Amino acid sequence: MLKINLSNQAKKLFTRLTPKHQLQLAEKIQNRQGNPRPSDSRSVEGFEGCFRFEIDEYRVIYRADIGDDVLLFAALGKLKGERM
What we know:
Blueprint: E1 3-6, H1 8-16, H2 19-34, E2 42-43, E3 50-55, E4 58-65, E5 70-78
């Protein structure tokens, strides 16, 4: 199973989320331990090995380093405008 790491920025923003969004995000992150690239993940153009997913009005960007057995959640932020 892959180890989960959150960047300092992601940790800081996570603490600012509502309890509902914290729970939703925690569940999505834990699900990626067994499958780092489920059907709701999309590649981030221009960044090899990086993926993104969305929860309500938030976007999460992460990198799956399978060789190092690590999932690094680098960014978490509020979507602006329409979803991509």
